[in-house]
Amino acid sequence: FAINMEQLVLEHELGRGNYGTVKKVLHKPTKVAMAMKEIRLELDSTRLNGILMELDVLHRAVSPFIVEFYGAFFVESCVYYCMEYMDGGSLASLCCFPNGNVSLPPSLSSSPGSAWTSSPAPLAEEHLGRIASSMTKGLAFLKDHLGVMHRDVKPTNVLVNRKGEIKLCDFGVSGQLEKSIARTNVGCQSYMAPERIKGSSPSSSNVDDAFTSYTVSADVWSLGLSIVEIARGKYPYPPETYENVFAQLSAIVDGEAPGLPDDDDDDSSLTADVSENGDGRPVGRKWSPEARDWVRRCLIKNADERATYPGLLAHPWMKMDAERNADMADWAARAIEWRDRGRRGFAIYE
Ligand code: ADP
């Protein structure tokens, strides 16, 4: 069946992306809660219909590691895209902090009994392992079953729910949609593999060039970088600044690839109060050699030597994940609570 606007009750806004807003909606006929993304495009109805036809392949993208697609329609010059509602939001909102600083302002962190600082959501290796295996299985599914690469792997495009499921969204199935929103070079943190940065000329207006000059291994790089960011709590490359707009891109192309932080490496932004769980057992800071090696294989700068999905899935770290029963629902609940308390805390502080 086809979804249309009349069937939907609009609820609150869930977030804003680079090219549209996402709202929570209720689909009246089925009573299913959905997330609806609005993408504003200045296109005629022939082109909009073309995009809808291309999006139709998403009905085949049924996997536990992919956010389910319910349907798309357009009204005037906006495409509305309805998908599974993920009640935990993005991994970025749960694990990544823009300034790499998760400590509270002194006035709040020193307040006695502050629940926000005493009930953190540390990310232990078992959680990181499950996130990595879910993302890899999602990407391998897109490649094997739909014959597409993702093209925009990053922590904001990985969604979480309270069941503890980790699913990918926002992948590039519609070439026409890609071209219309020109999603390359948006945002101030690049997840692009070195070969994508080298292969795309910033002055080129031909987006098609940029889409054909790299392959699925570019997504493997972005996967590895996302895992490093999630583990560290912050994006590992320097920010782009007004003084040096290419600082970040040249670090990706010319610098040493980042990895999981060493045990004694203070680079991890997580402060002491999030390095222990309820039992006082340190978690999250001691990444196994297997985890480090898995990430290292994703972040090999030469695309031909970089890991493939079958290679990553057969890696000892993924075997460890399969044998472990990571309690992702418990982690998700704590991470969501911690994030939402932090938001409330900052709202009070501001
Ligand atoms: P971006 O352009 O940065 O990729 P999106 O437009 O895809 O961002 O989404 C913006 C925000 O909306 C996300 O960061 C997330 O918090 C929220 N969001 C997107 N899709 C969903 C969904 N299916 N369920 C719940 N929240 C969502």
UniProtKB/TrEMBL annotation:
<dbReference type="GO" id="GO:0038066">
    <property type="term" value="P:p38MAPK cascade"/>
</dbReference>
<keyword id="KW-0067">ATP-binding</keyword>
<dbReference type="GO" id="GO:0071474">
    <property type="term" value="P:cellular hyperosmotic response"/>
</dbReference>
<feature type="binding site">
    <location>
        <position position="37"/>
    </location>
    <ligand>
        <name>ATP</name>
    </ligand>
</feature>
<dbReference type="GO" id="GO:0004708">
    <property type="term" value="F:MAP kinase kinase activity"/>
</dbReference>
<keyword id="KW-0808">Transferase</keyword>
<feature type="domain" description="Protein kinase">
    <location>
        <begin position="8"/>
        <end position="318"/>
    </location>
</feature>
<dbReference type="GO" id="GO:0005524">
    <property type="term" value="F:ATP binding"/>
</dbReference>
<keyword id="KW-0418">Kinase</keyword>
<keyword id="KW-0547">Nucleotide-binding</keyword>
<dbReference type="GO" id="GO:0032991">
    <property type="term" value="C:protein-containing complex"/>
</dbReference>
<dbReference type="GO" id="GO:0004674">
    <property type="term" value="F:protein serine/threonine kinase activity"/>
</dbReference>
<keyword id="KW-0597">Phosphoprotein</keyword>
<feature type="region of interest" description="Disordered">
    <location>
        <begin position="256"/>
        <end position="286"/>
    </location>
</feature>
<dbReference type="GO" id="GO:0005737">
    <property type="term" value="C:cytoplasm"/>
</dbReference>
<comment type="similarity">
    <text>Belongs to the protein kinase superfamily. STE Ser/Thr protein kinase family. MAP kinase kinase subfamily.</text>
</comment>
<keyword id="KW-0723">Serine/threonine-protein kinase</keyword>
<protein>
    <recommendedName>
        <fullName>mitogen-activated protein kinase kinase</fullName>
        <ecNumber>2.7.12.2</ecNumber>
    </recommendedName>
</protein>
